[in-house]
Amino acid sequence: MPVFVPVASNGEIPAGSAKTVIVGDREIALFNIGGAYYATESTCPHQGGPLAEGSIEGSIVTCPWHAWCFDVRTGKMTLGEFAYVEVFDVEVRDSAILVSLEPRP
Ligand code: FES
Q1: Based on the number of CB atoms within 10 Å of its own CB, is 6 exposed (0-12), middle (13-18) or buried (19 or more)?
Q2: Ligand 1, from 51, 53, 68: best to mutate by most atoms within 8 Å of Cβ?
Q3: How far is it, in rounded angstroms, from Cα 69 to Cα 62?
Q4: If 63 and its partner were Cys, which of 27, 49, 57, 89 is the partner (CB 3.0–4.6 Å)?
């Protein structure tokens, strides 16, 4: 059974934005896409750019450093299959947003 940890308050991250949070010993990028939350590893697999600081259009985040793009719902890169980011399940319980300690398999 996955373990979830609270990382933010519901309402703290406006729709269309993201925040870097700590989950266990990892940094995670937590996105609000139209009111639904998604979590990915926080650093871009290209050269480590901060994905939570990227621009967001729909469910696609564009890395602020060299513009690699990822779908935050799946972790898939939009330019090809040679890179991806790990994704983590997210739950909202009462007023808290919780993220799974382990990535989705
Ligand atoms: S570090 Fe993200 S595209 Fe280069």
Answers
A1: middle
A2: 68
A3: 4
A4: 49
Compute the distance between CA of residue 41 and CA of residue 22 in angstroms, rounded to an integer: 10
3-state SS, residue 72: coil
pLDDT in tens, 53-103: 999 999 999 999 999 999 999 999 999 999 999 999 999 999 999 999 999
**How far is ligand 1, taken at its centre, from the CA of residue 95, in Å?**
33
Domains of the chain: 4-100 (2.102.10.10)
36 in Cβ contact with 56 (< 8 Å): no
The atom of ligand 1 lying closest to the CA of 67 is 3
Kindly give, in sequence order, each residue whose CB lies less than 8 Å from that of residue 8, ignoring residues fewer than 6 positions away.
19, 21, 30, 96, 97
What is the DSSP pairing of strand 90-93 with strand 60-62? unpaired
